[in-house]
Structure formats: structure tokens, C-alpha cells
Design a protein that fits this description.
By secondary structure, this protein is an alpha/beta fold. The protein has 2 domains: 145 residues, Rossmann fold, CATH 3.40.50; 116 residues, Hypothetical Protein, Haloacid Dehalogenase-like Hydrolase, Chain: A, domain 2 (2-Layer Sandwich), CATH 3.30.1240. The chain has 10 helices and 14 strands. An 8-stranded mixed sheet has the order 5-4-3-2-1-12-13-14, sandwiched between helices.
Length: 291
């Protein structure tokens, strides 16, 4: 862990689900901590596995930029720094395997969530089950936001997408990845909560860590000036690369082993504690490390 220096400019990357928000509900205290850190001259970016298509403007407008689709897309200062998609042949092979195995899935892109017509009802059942289990507020930015982004294309094999969400599968996500072959990696899904029948299929060579490094270079900051906070397996790369890493209580051991400090979950306002401990909320004239 880099020794905290409140007067040094930092760039902070926050995972969304389970870190900044709990089941899509952002605590007012977290929103205020982000606002104060930015007012003090620090850059704060959302760094999420979600695609832009299901991120509400009320959420994204609170940040200096967005690393979305688990590092596949980076938006900052009104510019798109990268937008990685499945290569066409890999995309076709992936859809073929998903269809052959009777999977309920979404192909995630910045502008839409593509799904087969046959899978919409299964997807709705899974989302409604999650909402009932979590008692989520229906006006929050939660999994039901997927509904508005759902699109049923004529040919799923021709879609351009960055990541796949598997919501209900007769076979495990690791087995699906093995059947697809080289180019994808399986990960648990932090939203669906059912590791036996759900998960994510990401590009094997894309990670949140790539987005962190790209943004730091763009801002003229070193990795030692980066701060990452996350709770899921798709946060491991981010936590491993950032100068200071924040883990969330109750996260898997593989996540917490990379954490320099561990704070409570969103409902206990853990990020406020982290920001206070790192001096991000202190009013001070910042030293700009780009100078």
C-alpha cells in the first residue's frame, strides 16, 4: 500500500454492485463522499462489470468517467478511450454454444442488451426472483434496469457485444467457457447471486486493470496514485494493480488477499470510512503529480 498523502491527487476506481451500491441502491453517504472527493481535486470513476446500456444517467453523471463492461469500454472527458468487442468468429461460436445448451443469456453492449425472444421470460423470472430476495427498491438503479435495454435482434450471431451475462444455464459457466474454447473466461455474476446456474463470460484478454492503467496514463498519473475498491472476482485485477486497494467485508478470500484495507459493505457506508482513512475528504491544496 502506498502511504496515504492527502495532498496528492488520486484517481479512484469504484466497483458498482456490492461496493458503491447494494443491489443498485446507492447510499446518500456514498454519493456525498464521491462528490466531496471530486470537489477536493481527486478524480473518481465508476469501474463496473455492467455495460453502459444499463447504467442510469443519475449514476454515471456523478463520476469523472466510466470503466464499464469489466474494462472493455472506457469513457472519460467525453471521449471513448477503448471499446473492445468479441471478434466476429468468437461471437458466433459463443452464441452457438449458448443456444445449443439452452441458456438464458444477454449479450452486453454499450447501447443494448441482446437476448433471444425465447429467453426473455426466463430472464424476467430470474430478475424478479432476485428482487424478491433482496427486497430492492423498485425506483432504484437495480437489475430491473435491464428491461429497458433488452433488444431481440433478428440474428444474435451477428451482434457486436463486449460480454455475456448468463442468467440461467443447465451447465456451469466454466463448462460453457470450455465448450466455447479459447478467447473467453468465466466469472461469477455479482448481480444474479446463483453461482451454479449463472455467471459471466468475458474476453480472456480484457480486465478492469486495463481500464485502470489506461485512465491513469490519460490523466498523467502513476499507478501509485490510483485507488481501487471492489468486492467481486472481476475486481481482482483492479485491486492487484492499483496503488491502494480497498476490499469490502464479506468478499471472497481471493479478493481480500489483494486489499490494503477492508471496510464495511455499502449499507454500513464503507466507502466513507475508506475515503476518510485515505484523506480523500480532507480539504487541502492538492499536489498535481503531473507537474
Amino acid at each position: 500500500m502506498t502511504a496515504p498523502n492527502p495532498a496528492r491527487r488520486r484517481v479512484v476506481f469504484l466497483d458498482f454492485d456490492g461496493t458503491y451500491a447494494m443491489h443498485g441502491v446507492v447510499p446518500d453517504a456514498h454519493a456525498e463522499a464521491v462528490r466531496r472527493a471530486r470537489a477536493n481535486g481527486h478524480d473518481v470513476l465508476l469501474c463496473t462489470g455492467r455495460p453502459l446500456s444499463i447504467l442510469a444517467p443519475a449514476v454515471t453523471e456523478a463520476f469523472d468517467g466510466i470503466v464499464s463492461s469489466a474494462g472493455a469500454r472506457v469513457d472519460i472527458d467525453g471521449q471513448v478511450l477503448c471499446d473492445h468487442r468479441y471478434p466476429p468468429e468468437l461471437a458466433r461460436r459463443t452464441v452457438d454454444v449458448l443456444e445449443a445448451n439452452g441458456v438464458a443469456y444477454c449479450l452486453e453492449a454499450p447501447d443494448a442488451m441482446y437476448t433471444p425472444a425465447s429467453g426473455i421470460e426466463r430472464l424476467r423470472e430470474q430478475i424478479e426472483r432476485l428482487l424478491r430476495a433482496t427486497d430492492e427498491r423498485r425506483d432504484a438503479s437495480g437489475p430491473h434496469d435491464i428491461y429497458a435495454a433488452l433488444t431481440v435482434p433478428d440474428d444474435l450471431r451477428a451482434c457486436s457485444f463486449a460480454k455475456v451475462s448468463v442468467w440461467d444455464s443447465p451447465v456451469g459457466v466454466e463448462e460453457l467457457a470450455a465448450r466455447i474454447g479459447a478467447g473467453v473466461r468465466p466469472l461469477p455474476n455479482s448481480v444474479s447471486g446463483d453461482a451454479t446456474r449463472s455467471g459471466e463470460l468475458q474476453l480472456a484478454d480484457v480486465d478492469k486493470a486495463d481500464g485502470v492503467a489506461l485512465v491513469a496514463r490519460r490523466l498523467g498519473l502513476g499507478i501509485e496514485d490510483t485507488v481501487g475498491a471492489g468486492d467481486g472476482m472481476n475486481d481482482v485485477g483492479m485491486l492487484a494493480i492499483t496503488g491502494t486497494s480497498i476490499g469490502i467485508e464479506g468478499s471472497p478470500a481471493a479478493v481480500l488477499e489483494h486489499a490494503d484495507l477492508v471496510v464495511p459493505r455499502p449499507e454500513q457506508h464503507g466507502l466513507v470510512e475508506a475515503f476518510e482513512r485515505l484523506g480523500l475528504l480532507d480539504d487541502a491544496r492538492l499536489e498535481d503529480s503531473r507537474a
